From TrEMBL, chains A, B, C, D:
The keyword Manganese applies. SUPFAM superfamilies: Bacterial exopeptidase dimerisation domain, Zn-dependent exopeptidases. The Mn(2+) ion enhances activity. This is Amidohydrolase. Mn(2+) binds at residues 141, 143, 175, 199, 395. Keywords: Manganese, Metal-binding. Pfam families: M20_dimer, Peptidase_M20. Gene3D superfamilies: Zn peptidases. Residues 225-313 form the Peptidase M20 dimerisation domain. Coiled coil: none annotated.
Length: 425, 425, 425, 425
């Protein structure tokens, strides 16, 4: 195809109207599962069957999960499916076996962001009536398009003479780098020989395909909670153990972790707070922050320094600190053998006007967990970029995709999957 | 009297049921004015007529004010009076002229605190059915008793052969040290020759009178709002101007303002926060804090240092900062000539078992603005402590007063006012 | 006497020409001992016999001690005496027993400061030819006068009908608050019933006597030495463990130790340094600092916080820190019973024109160790101030004393000692 | 040649025995000029004639310069030449014109380091008797070899049929990145069409030639001097303006300058200090530090942030700060057209066993000023690495070069100069 078929368009718009954040993708998963059930699949793993259920990161509290579950039901999601996702175990995996051949995976992510979508009349979802119906949440990074590509590529492979096994991973919780690890550790990646992942946009225009994206910054999100003791700031300042002083000492020194000669590192104290009132020595404070590195080792270097700084800043002011990891992703590299195949296919795909061998993401992504699992098992992995003219930047309230570019992505991915099954590079 | 009359008891309990914070004392002021209208007053100044209306500190936003105004109406406050308080100009001044004599003032404060009152069955307001009806707010510092003492003392003076002028100042906004300055600058203090202020409790037991309280820490509450520029913490950290780094540098250095040889100083960054998300360089942050000093000069010393630190911390990280004063009170000293009279009266007052010459507050209070205005004009001022066995500490959710101690306070204050009018010390 | 006798004048000027710092008072001690040997003493304890030799603080290195020892010999100090002071065990104690009576102590300090004395022709030691012959060192705090008073008071008591035991403590190392502890723990204070200590000047003019000085700030001097690891700042910044970052974090937070409601506290990072070259990540750094408190408890509060901050600042940057106490003194209070006697005597002493009951030192002094030892043993102690018109402030290069005021001090001290022996207050 | 001739060996060892730091290369320059005078030069520019004399960075004080000048004379340097270098204007430029052809430059640096040379018997300069005679200083970076290569290459070109102009730049003050700017701005680079610079070692073994070195970090050395006001830390802490607090705030925040997405940056507070005594609030402090960047723009980014931080840290503690640039170098890139020629020549040079196309310096070098000047004028520049088995690392006390590798360097450089004159690439 070259123009996106109406069925896929409707499907993408339905997801766009129902954006759901990490571990709350009830409606989204249910809609995907409903579609998949109509296909001739070998296996379909839903929710807890598609994930490792141990040590999930950044799980919202029960009330929050229940509220989104309820919203999904109200919006018409299949109650039986929603039941299977209970506790926020979202996402699913579709498997088709077609004769003798390698196991090939395609990973797409499905979650949305806490951004209020633009009401501008020029914003296409507004103009065409599929603006977010979850006020304050939005598909501002194209994961609605990704889920659609996953479905489209599955259909294209099913329609072909593909010989092998295809697994499509509909992964939850990418935006908080919390879902990738759970899916990577589900066991379903263990026999995958070749893995593709995909992203739209990334400042690449419509018609451009990036064959292999690299430059993933390994990342760790953390939440540090400091606890001291309150005191009346006028009457008994010495009785306080000041959690805000501890927090400030930590912030100052976090940003001052030494630069590393092996490559870029990052650190940010992105959301902080503490104390209760002007005249009370603050008992509590927190830092929600992150560290990153161009390699997994560099991120670990930053993480170790951050832990030590947080711990000693607490101790410095006689406070306690609890540091929890809220999200995580390693670095990864696309294998040239796979991206070469993507380049070949893209070169002869309608709608592709420019083929770029490789580009850097310059950010973080937890597809890397899945890529790493496959590569550690001796397989190959490749992260493909599908250009699209997005009016607003990623994570802004006017982000949108050109829907026909979804069709281009489907053609490239399905073509590459087919070729890989044939050639086993 | 020696036991509190039922009318006063009911009045106090009515106020206790309707606690209202700074600039939102609509019901409280209305109830006081309703009572005062029944007295034979020379003058009654209400709301904006009782205050300087310029440069009010810490005024809530309009919606917040409107909500409390509405609550007051719903609770049955006289709509005409509430109208006169529009915009949050709360408080009032009662004036009685009785022949030739000095002008004597009595200042009582009327506002409440953002504390949720205990539901413990042993807590008297629970047991006797007058627990706060404003969830999350409470008279946890006895200002309901103070307002009642103001009314009681006025009645006692009216009942006596007092010769002179008595002004009773029902002051709003003490808890945020925001109301004292406005009332002090209203002009109504300018002709006051002698001023009394009063506080219950302060860890002095029932039966104890403190003739003159000193040791008021001069104080300034400030709100510093930092503004920088956001950036993606992974992709473009250098484009950020980090308001959280500015805040942290300020906090570290605020607490490090040099100690002063002339006396105690204090500083606290009591409530702080900043940033929006883990991966965004923080654009905004704030510090709600305070500085104090044993004298007004010491508080100014701290305040100047704090301003310079906040300003240069912002500049250090290429941010802007706006520093606003949210509350303020100078230091003050009780005049011995007045406290001597209080001691004399207290010594022969029923219910008084212990007379203490003086004690230190060790905290802050904006009655000092009124005291200072009177003293600067050549008059005398005295801050009187009326002991009461309070089960919980001040500003805790089980604070309460022994109501009969209100009667003791009324006797001492009215007696002292009468004696001062006679003796003009 | 009323004018200082020439012998004492010469003695004082000899000491003034040979100023010696802590644990290096070889010439000074030798000259005192030479003088004492000419008196009819019961006992004379020199050097290690006058001190506890355990855990001496702030002892210079051997080469430094040897150099001063050599200078003393060259200046004509008795070699036998200098031998007994070997290792820098300086100072001495003179004891006279005269029949039945209490044991009374007089403590004077004898060390000098690392200050280069003024060469101004108006500076009396220049004009009269007794300027310091130890370039860079100076008696800028009057300890030359104190030693002379000790000798003079001893002589005056010997000349009187005094009945009891007098011990004169010539204490080394006061300026670094290092000598007092050693002398206090020597055992020689254990039987002292009454102790006097004395200081000239302190901004009190000639003719003024302060009967009992209080307000000694308890103090601890510390040296914190940080050790990390060096690295090339351009090529391998991550390999450094930055001792200067640790030092900076410590400094920021030391000054921010919470103020204490019980009284004044102090902290200072007075001499700091670190690193070797612009392009090397600093391996080493140090802080020479101090904490003080109005009471011994307050100084301990500061000291505990300082230790914790130094330790965690080191840990924060993966460094080690070694914190050593270099000097120490507790707080103390003059006993009113003794200062009353000083007041009585001063009131009838020639040359005294003003008697001040008490005054605050507002600084630190390790006479307090001796005072505390006596007071802990049930005795009384009193620190006396002898006014003098000093042209420059204490610890400045133009400090000097009016020599006749030494005679006034001797009369007051000897008189008080005599009276105390009679009255046993 | 292939083995270094004795004359060059003697020359190199003479320089090695007389290591001289930045702006103090009196003996070194004199010896070079003496040699050059024996050649048939077209021009010889010495000292101030070889440099821009404006805004020299990091000039030692007069006494220091005079002392080194005197040492040079005593060691037998030609007094007339030393006179021409008066004031520390060291270095020289040799010019030979040989018919029609391009202007080709060769830059070698001549200064030494403040490192005490090893006395180990295995250290060749010890074993062969040419250890440093300037205690505490050492040619620990091979600039003695560089100067010798400059002379050798000049001789080789003079011996050839070279047609064109050759300028050999004997540059002072590289180690403090202070001399390059002055020579670059002398005017003598303005007509240079091709420039070579050279460095031995850099962890490349004997026999290896690096044709074009890149990866120069742009750098700025700065000295920040803070000035506040002293005060007695016990008696009057509030009167101090604490230069050590300002320094500590600056250090904390310097290291926390945001990382930059465009490439590596560096910052170091390498040598810091402040204060005078434990009990004095510090009046003065300083930071000797540096910032670097992979590009000149990145170094400027760091420099601007550093300046702002230093300024506002001073202001924060009511201090003044003076920030001076003590050394500076931009980044630069070797031109491929020149390094290709170096590769060609090296490939056929005796003694060369390995030719490396390019490598990163990963440090800073002020040859970049000269390279930039030539490149800005439309010329080409290339920085060549000549491998040598150096036993100790650069800037360590056992650094040394294999002297025959100097001969290899001479052959490669002279060969490349000759070829460039022919081919004008």
């Amino acid at each position: 195809m070259h123009t996106l078929d109406d069925a896929y368009r409707e499907f993408r718009r339905d997801l766009h109207r129902h954006p759901e954040p990490t571990w709350r993708e009830f409606y989204t998963t249910a809609r995907i599962v409903e579609e998949l059930r109509e296909r001739d699949l070998t296996d379909l793993y839903v929710g807890p069957d598609a994930l490792s259920t141990e040590d999930r990161m950044n799980v919202p509290d029960e009330a929050e999960i229940a509220a989104w579950e309820e919203r999904a039901r109200e919006a018409g999601a299949d109650p039986g499916i929603v039941d299977r996702l209970s506790g926020g175990y979202t996402g699913c995996i579709a498997v088709v076996e077609r004769g003798d051949g390698p196991v090939i995976g395609l990973r797409v992510d499905i979650d949305a962001l806490p951004i209020r979508e633009s009401e501008d009349a020029d914003h296409v979802p507004v103009a065409e009536g599929f603006r977010s119906e979850r006020e304050g949440y939005m598909h501002a990074c194209g994961h609605d398009a990704h889920a659609t590509m996953g479905l489209g590529a599955l259909d294209a492979v099913l329609d072909s003479d593909f010989a092998g096994t295809l697994k499509v991973f509909f992964q939850p919780g990418e935006e908080q780098v919390a879902g990738g690890k759970q899916m990577a550790e589900s066991g379903h990646l263990d026999d995958v020989d070749y893995l593709f992942a995909v992203h739209v946009g990334l400042d690449h225009p419509s018609g451009e395909i990036v064959c292999g994206i690299d430059g993933f910054l390994a990342v760790r999100h953390f939440l540090a909670e400091f606890e001291g003791a309150p005191a009346h700031a006028g009457a008994r300042p010495e009785e306080g153990r000041n959690a805000v002083q501890a927090m400030a000492a930590a912030i100052q020194n976090l940003y001052a972790i030494p630069r590393h000669a092996d490559g870029p590192t990052r650190v940010n104290a992105g959301l902080v707070g503490g104390g209760t009132a002007t005249n009370i020595v603050p008992e509590e404070s927190f830092i929600e922050g992150e560290v990153r590195g161009a390699t997994t080792e560099l991120a670990e270097y930053m993480s170790e320094h951050a832990d030590r700084i947080l711990e000693s800043a607490a101790e410095m002011h006689d406070c306690e600190v609890d540091v929890a990891t809220k999200g995580e992703a390693p670095s990864a590299t696309s294998d040239a053998a796979l991206s070469a195949i993507v380049g070949e296919i893209a070169g002869s795909t309608d709608g592709v006007t420019n083929v770029v061998e490789s580009a850097d993401l310059g950010g973080s992504e937890d597809a890397t967990f899945l890529m790493q699992t496959v590569q550690d098992g001796g397989g190959l992995a490749c992260y493909v970029g599908v250009g699209t003219d997005h009016p607003g930047g990623h994570h802004t309230n006017t982000f949108d995709v050109v829907e026909d570019d979804i069709a281009v992505g489907v053609d490239v991915l399905a073509g590459a999957i087919h070729r890989v099954a044939e050639t086993r590079p």
